[in-house]
Amino acid sequence: MKRGAIRFRGCALAPFVILAIGAATSAQAQNLQDRPVAPPADAAGLPATNADDQVSFASDALDYDDTNDIVTASGDVRMQRAGSRLRADKVVWNRRTGEVHASGNVAVVNPGGDTAYSDESVLTDDMKDGVVENLLIVLANGGRLAARHGVRKGEITTLDRAAYTPCSVENVKGCAQEPSWKVTAVRIIHDGNRHRIYYKDARISILGQTVLWLPGFSHPDGSNQAGGGSGLLLPNFEVSSALGVDLSIPYYLQLAPNRDLTVTPHVYSKVAPGIEAQYRALNTLGAYQVRGMVTYGSRLPASVNATALDKDKGIRAFIDANGTYQLGPDWTLSGQVRLQTDRTFMRRYDISSDDRLRSSLSAERIDTSSYLQIAGWYVQSVRTGDKQGQQPIALPAIDYRKRITDPWLGGVIQLQANSLSLIRTDGQDTQRAFAGARWDLRTLTGLGQQVTFTAYSRADIYHSDENDRSPTVVYRGREGWEGRAIVAGAVDMRWPFIGSLFGGSQQLTPRVQLVASPQTRNLVIPNEDARAIDLEDSNLFALNRFAGYDRWEDGSRVTYGAEWNYQRPRVEIRAVAGQSYRLTSEPTILPPGTGLSDRFSDIVGRVSVKYGKWLEVTERFRIDKDNLNVRRNEVDATIGSSHTYALIGYLRLNRNIDTSIEDLRDREEIRLGGRVQIARFWSIFGSTVVDLTGKSEDPLALTDGYQPVRQRVGVVYEDECLSLGVSWRKDYDPTGDARRGSTFSLRLALKNIGR
Predict the structure, then answer these.
(1) What is the rounded CA–CA span in Å between residue 74 and residue 63?
(2) Where is the LptD C-terminal domain (predicted)?
(3) Of the four listed, 291, 347, 412, 591, which is most buried by Cβ atoms within 10 Å?
(4) 245 bridge partner residues
């Protein structure tokens, strides 16, 4: 075997790959399957080189024609240069013309791991330009490109009769298969300067069938370089009762490496066309995006009984913007804007089903021992019957917390200062400020009991006016200035016991808590943030079981319960249950039905069962202490594998709460979803949400105990590089022009192209 080193004036020996590395595309009737040629071996056994312009080689025979100045290497020729490796049956280099001719089972691997195979290649001696015949490239990321003929000149590579796919060409048994999708084209041009790939007379095939012919199109070459990212994305197609046929074709515009804009025209058969846009930007401080849509058309008010006589016309639009900036190691600035011109726009155009749109601006400072937030927010209501003038505007909302170590008794002290101003254009205005301190000391007794001592104090001051405009009387408070002081103390004891059971380990932890707080002024204080009170396992042992600051649970009580955890291989069970008893007999402000209005509370708990990765069930409950009726029953279950599974959710609130308290209305609903894999890549999926609320749960309910909210079913094909799905969805919302109806959707996603 001959060995040696030849000095070249040029780049690494990798033009075979360069000819089509960026040209992710392919030729009609070209073979994308593996070639019966092994890729070049590593550089072991080749002479070492000291410079990038040197080529190490090995061959069975080496001949030099002095007369014509031609070097010929033959018989398992192997070469290496600057990280690229080549093998061929024969390599001929004409030093006079500068032509290098490689033939016979040519294969080359570039430094990036891409492998190119060809029958014959003719190159310049600087290895930058050349011609390749019967080319196959296997990219490092798994993509493949085949072409009958390829030419590279400078930064322009042209491929004739080419084919491209990013998909696997072998099945799990190693047998050849048709790729999920591929593009064939008469000609493909890769522009290395613009980092873009252009197709001429292209055909896109999906699952072996040609589905689209295009005279020409282009897309970025995947190098993520500036200037190569603009172009059309895959279209979206839907048919709905509200809009008719909806065809949208997004256009993506890369403005800079850190900024882009996507513009999406929408054409509908039942309403006027619309234009949607999304702008995104990233800089050294953070990122933000702005999305919006505008159209012109008729609209109905957000009313169940709206008729054509209520219709008017005008501009309809929405904006949804958000962003976060990191202003140094401690400060963060974040915000969002969500607004629409009318209440039914986002629902009708299937943008969002949220019933409230929140806009906010917040500045936060966080370090190892303190937290500061200065914020403001605004809410636009989308609910039927809500008065926008009753929605609060918070400006400002300030919260500061400082954690320090207790130098006298040990433990931790947390100081807090809070201020909130709520303004309504047609309702009650409220301002609040308070300062508080909390001390916690955790100890461990000799018997293994975990004991926590807590002391809490707070001073509040409130101001409110136009209180009579608040629709719920118990939330109003007394108009003018009001103040109050809050003091509380608590002792919490947990005593864990650990043992074995049925081949696993268990932990049983009884828990007892004693809380004492003198009588507190509550009803004269406006209630803005503590309205949705309900006893559950998450707040059973809380110092204050109201959700916010405006209401405080005074009096003395003892809370008791237990936690039980069990674990063994593939099995995990967690359970908690408890109850409280009020030691004082004074009347409570907690309304009947919350589980806390009597001296003995209802019994609440949670049980979670997990079996491997196949089953996970969680149930939360509240049981009436008097008659053991279930006042709250909430079940969430996941059954199955990642390919075939069922999701089950059920909620029933049967608390018999006064219907005038709008935040505590009872309801019942069931949520079902699932997916069944019917073949390796084919699945059927579906979901439904049904409102089961009847007169027994809510006397003011408009439903009869069975009212579907939405339903969806579809079929999808999904592998590593193709997702194709068809779905049907039906919504039952009767509000305004966001009317009930069906929507049919076709979804297509191709790896490396479009979205």
Answers:
(1) 9
(2) 315-682
(3) 347
(4) 239
